[in-house]
Amino acid sequence: MKNIVFTFLLIFSQMIPAQIPTGNIKGTLIDTDTKAPLIGANVSIVDSHLGAATDINGEFGITNLPVGSYSLRFGYIGYKPVVKTDIIVKPGRITFVDVELASSSIETESVVVTGGYFQNTEIQPSSITSFSYEEIRRAPGSAGDVSRIMMGLPSIGKIGDQSNSLIVRGGSSTENSFYVDNIEIPNINHFPMVGTGSGPIGLLNVDFIKNVDFYSGGFSPQFGNKLSSVMDIEFREGNREEFDAQLDLSFQGIGGIIEGPLDGGKGTYFISGRRSYLDIIFDKVAEGEAMPSYYDSQAKVVYNLSKNHKISLLNIFANDNQKMTYKKAFENEKNDYFDIDIVMNSAGINWQYIWEKSGYSNFTLSHHYWKDARDIFSTLTKENVFKSASTEQGIRIRNYNHYIISKNNKLNFGFDIKYSYNNYNNDYAEKIDKLGNTPPRLIVDLSLNTTLISSFANYSWQIGNITLNKGVRAVYSDLNTKVYVEPRLSMTYDFSDITSMTGLFGVFHQNIPHVLAAQKKDFEKLDFPKSYHYILSFSHLLTEDTKLTLEIYNKEYFNLPMNPATPQLMVFDNSFFESYLESNTKLVSKGRAYARGVELTVQKKLATDIYGLIAGTYYRARYKSLDGKWLDRLYDNKFNFTIEGGYKPNESWECSARWIYSGGTPFTPFDIEASQKANTGIYDESRINAERLPDYHSLNVRVDKRFHFGKSSLVLYLSVWNAYGRKNISNYSWNEIKNEQQEEKQWTTLPIIGLEFEF
To answer: Where in the chain is the domain with CATH 2.40.170.20?
Structure first.
């Protein structure tokens, strides 16, 4: 394969024209508080004399640039400078760069060029990491999956290669929320598990992503109903001046994109479609596994009604199918065979209204649909162990307002109304659980309708070197008829332009997954799980493009759902290695847990030809069983270490790598004698999560080659996951066919070839 790839690259290298093609950079510069255009702002190419100034509409243009990668510096008197890296100029195309500048509390008569590569918002000064489109696209081991790029962050636990579940500071995958253009998306993955944010591969098209802000804790009151994290994704707009198209072949599948202007540039559109081909890959690297197939489509339409009014429509669709036959399951000694069919669609319309100089509002109306059909059978008995034919739907109205009281006093406020109407038709068979109990068969056939109403406000006050945020979120649920009040507080002290310290505190609640609440009428009245976040953060710019961050956090959990029949196990954690949330005869809101740790990150942006990140963490994540014992959570790696980076020797080649080392996660040994007698895995109750898997480590590498033609370009890349073939273990399971314990291996060496052709 290596010889084939390099021969392919050599052939294409001969196709490059002698004359270097050119392209253009255009964009808009606006005030982050008012969304008003900044007139006469300075836009310059870093390490160059080329640049431009914004016009009366805040627009700028730099034309006839040789194709390649650029960094742009944006500056304006009285505003904090911003540097945008990885601006890729393509032949015969326009690269759009839209930037927001925040006003500075320090009055100056000139642009102070300090930092600019890293921006934190006033209301979220720490526990936030931002990624651009190019950083996501090229990240080794991510394959364009927005969730997998987060795996290198110190706040993310390392559990398994097969899933891109975000395990944030010891929390489960049920504790994370996702937003795209102010629209909440329940899950951004193919083959998701109902009630969680987990899945094996992302469904969002990375070419549409403008920016991603990932909040690993202490997030502001505008976000709620989750205990651990928020991923806030902004999709870009389509090209307002010309028609563009692109063909893609990647790990996610094969597909294409079209985009262009509407009504003479007053509006834009983009549409994508993609179909998987993972069955070919899985045949080679995961013999005996089921053949997954899926397709997805995404579309966004934007239209400017006037200078102050803009509407946008978004639709994200996915259809997943996976089937394992009895014959294949038996031949490959799999415990289950199954048939899975999942359909998801999220659609929404957003109206942005700019209040001239005093702020702006966003109003969003969205709808989500999720059909989950699963038939899972025991290979040993051929009995149906789980059957689902359920739908979850929801309508949400969301309002967010930003009001400028004065230069140093700002108020954010709004509300959320979420109406869910779900139909569950689930059949949980009688089977032996992990502690040797035999819960009876449970048939769920009901509609569960519920309304969640929230309002929020955050006041930001800046005086001298201090920025103070005081906020609150209030939540009412008609499911358990309770009101929850969530105070949020942060304070930042700037020692200088390059050094600051922040303290955050917040209270967070979330409803238990509706698929669990539907199992018994009593479950609807369960208290919402709650977490307290305490965070102390220190940041320092080592150089203009290199930042050091140190964070210490303590996260305390209360009211977690626990099953008295399995008092030593956590309901949220116990589902990680399953394909569905299991049945419960009884649940009580008495679970306690905590996660405490320290994280150190050094990140270098691509200012010249080198970029990278070094991150490490030491933490503990534990929970209290119903019998009063403190036990390690399934996600307690204890320590994680990541080193990743890349090198661009020229505009044609780029190479990058990511190496991750993590402590082994806890697991519970089987009671061998009891398991063999029952012919299913039964835990040793005296050693719940008392043993640990071997430490995890893996190297992912990637090489990109760009080809530029007269009016088109091609990116060809080769990525190798687990390059040195480390045999990492994800879990120990009980093989019911052989009636013995077996190792569950993570991915072996996996080569991936991809291409992007733009024309």
So the answer is: 128-758
Q: Which of 169, 261, 183 is nearest to 219 (CA)?
A: 169
pLDDT (tens digit per residue) in 626-639: 999 999 999 999 99
Angstrom distance (rounded) from CA 186 to CA 192? 10
Structure tokens at 477: 């649920």
What does the alpha-carbon distance between residue 585 and residue 444 come to, in Å, rounded to a whole number?
A: 12
Q: Give ∠ CA 642-647-653 in degrees, rounded to 5.
A: 130
> Candidates 2.40.170.20, 3.40.50.360, 3.30.70.920, 1.20.1250.20; correct CATH number of 128-758?
2.40.170.20
- How far apart CA 291 and CA 281 sit, in angstroms, is 10
pLDDT for res 288: 56
| CATH match of 2-101 with 2.60.40.1120 | yes
pLDDT at 124 over 70: no
Rounded CA separation 346/317 (Å): 7
> Using CA atoms, how far apart are residues 196 and 574, in angstroms rounded to an integer?
12
pLDDT score recorded for residue 466: 93
Question: What is the arithmetic mean of pLDDT over 666-694?
Answer: 94
Take residue 579 and report the two structure tokens written for it. Answer: 């394909």
Q: Hey, which bits of 407-497 come out as E strands?
A: 409-428, 442-463, 466-477, 482-494
Spatial distance between the Cα atoms of 728 and 519, rounded to a whole number of angstroms = 36
pLDDT confidence of residue 115: 55
pLDDT band at 102 (very low <50, low <70, confident <90, very high): confident
Nearest alpha-carbon partner for 759 in 29, 257, 232, 311:
257
pLDDT grade, residue 387 (50/70/90)?
very high
pLDDT for 417: 97
Number of residues that this document lists for the chain = 759
